[in-house]
Amino acid sequence: MYYPYATHATGMPLITRMPQNNYNPYFAHSNQQRQYGAYGAPIYQSGPSTKTYVHQCPALNATIFKVVQRDGYSKDFRFDSKTQKMVQPPVTTVNEEDLYPEYGIFSDRLQKEMMIAFNRATSKMEQYIYSLESGQFEQVEDPDLKYHVGNRSPSSIVMIIDDWKGRMSIEKGKDGSVKKMVWVRGQWIQIPSRPVKTLEESEEVGEEAEKDPYTRTLPQYKIRYCPHSQKEVIFYLHRDDYLTFAYDETTREMRGGFQCFLCPRFVSESHLFPRYSEFSTSLNTHVIHVWNTETEQMEKYIYDASKFQFQQIYCPEAEFNPEKSMSSNILFVASLENTKSIVMRGNDGRLKKEGYCMIRGEYVDIPPNVVRTFLVQRREQKELKLVKMMENNKRFGNENKDLEAETIETMKYSEEESSNDSSESEEESSDEEYSQYSEDEDKDYSLADLSKCDDEESEKVSEDSEESSEEEDIIRGLSHLQLTTEKEIDRLRKLRKLVLSNGLNNNL
Questions:
Q1: 3-state class of 53 per DSSP?
Q2: How far is CA 99 from the centre of its chain?
Q3: Up-side HSE of residue 82: CA atoms within 13 Å toward CB?
Q4: 191-192-193 Cα angle (round to 5)
Q5: Has residue 423 got a pLDDT over 70?
Q6: Where is the composition biased (Acidic residues) (predicted)?
Q7: pTM recorded for the entire structure
Q8: Cβ 49 vs Cβ 69: under 8 Å
Q9: E strand intervals along 285-420
Q10: pLDDT tens digits, residue range 83-129?
Q11: Could you read off the pLDDT of 265-289 as tens digits, one per residue?
Q12: Backbone phi, then psi, for 133, in 5-degree steps?
């Protein structure tokens, strides 16, 4: 018997006995064992510095990843869908015994009876509903129904749930904790307590329900060993993509976003093992039925001769027949203009493609290309949508700059017009005053002396009235010009707002 994590006096792993059949990445070769043993050094070879074990926790209803280091230190992690990180699972599990109900109330938002209860595990007042499907209390959030001490019920019965599946009574127990009673054959029977489903667990269930049929068939997680970094990498499926995580021994945390450009992160041609191919009349091309060792399921692909690339497809008419197979290694020949490609099964059973080389005069292997699985196609659509959004933002940004420049030019032009109009009106008023003064002077010299005073008074009155009328005309002209300018500026502002709102609506 051997202990893969037994330690030497130095704290390094020590192998007590070499197993006969089981491979252990910490074992060294026999010559290295003798060499290291002579110096009393720990014996191990390059390999993963940690071991990752996976189990399902029924209390948390979650997948737990247990990482064990060589020195025996271990730490548990679980995926948090909110932060999209690997975090430590809660130390305490919420059970029904931890809930002390205050009162029951109907939630218009959820259209269900809801229980307000104090959770002694979290020391918080929380909201719960009871699910007849799962037989568990599920934590919920209704911001419209905050806890109110005045709603506390003196009765031991918190709420009654009537459903076609049965009738239940949620009550307060003798110690104040929640108690479940079900009506069976004319009497109430108590139901044993179960773990409570928290908000995080409910979100994970909701996220699972949002997955499409194809994503649901994919494994929730995969653990792969990266020989280049000598780490075990966790691939965890979140929505429609796999997130990567690797354990950091320095910080003892699970770091996200791990990348190794030498290891294939996604499905590659080496993962595809063809069974047989058939011609599809609806697609007008050959459909290849392959076994994908990465997803561990049968899938359908077509070959794009223009890109020398395999693409995953939906094709209900081409159902896989497990009894059908092909004796020949050549699946079909794809032609495009003057080029031909042979899609075949290689000697190792993997999918392979060859193209004719005019220089060598023979068929040669075509280098592997990216396999366009459904996940890759969705990622390409997201990237294309993002590029279009950036282009639209850039285009609308340029149009806004043009509108702003046009508005500035309009304002400058309006100011120049107003200044020109005001100077012209001033010149006209001065000319009129001079001509009027000269005319009045001639009239004064031709009149008799007795009528001088009356004429001077009438002239003063006429001059005042003329000056006031001229001033009013100038003011009216300026007001009209200012109003026209303001209307033009307001029109340009409304035009900008309309363009911006249309741009935002298109982006949304």
A1: strand
A2: 34
A3: 6
A4: 115
A5: no
A6: 416-443, 454-473
A7: 0.51
A8: yes
A9: 285-292, 297-304, 309-312, 330-336, 339-345, 351-357, 362-365
A10: 899 998 876 678 889 999 999 999 999 888 999 999 988 888 999 99
A11: 788 999 999 999 999 998 999 999 9
A12: -70, -50
